[in-house]
């Protein structure tokens, strides 16, 4: 069912009260017949065509929790979402995940991203070893390369944090 304004819903019910058929209302208002039928059934059963409150889980963070989150971020502008979640647990006794912290901050207009590194990723020693390795293994065959065990499933941390850093600037 497409979204209809309150006025459109009212005109459908008004046409129904004037003894028009669903097909006639559909053609007159350019609304699908299934939508017209749904609105009429809803009006008969509930007495209203307004959208009812949706079910769902209550929010984890209250307004007080959001204020605390903002306060923590303003004190330490470059904190990881994990450290913010830990601080919320200790100060407000709120158990929330780092993902919830990022989602709430995004909703408040802040953004989180991985911090840029100030150090080069390749050390001076390795910078010299890379061309040497390339020259030594230049003429290797495909079979020789298949015997090399590549550590592609190894997790390591290059910088100070495993997560995102939350920056205290508005979008």
Automatic annotation (TrEMBL):
InterPro entries: Homeodomain-like_sf, RNaseH_sf, Transposase_Tc1-like, WH-like_DNA-bd_sf
SUPFAM superfamilies the UniProt entry points to: Homeodomain-like (SSF46689)
Pfam families: HTH_Tnp_Tc3_2
GO annotation, biological process: DNA integration; DNA transposition
Domain Transposase Tc1-like span(s) in chain numbering: 66-138
Gene3D superfamilies, A to Z: Ribonuclease H-like superfamily/Ribonuclease H, Winged helix-like DNA-binding domain superfamily/Winged helix DNA-binding domain
GO molecular function: DNA binding
Coiled coil segments of this chain: none
Superkingdom field: Eukaryota
Record's protein name: Transposase Tc1-like domain-containing protein
Organism this protein belongs to: Takifugu rubripes
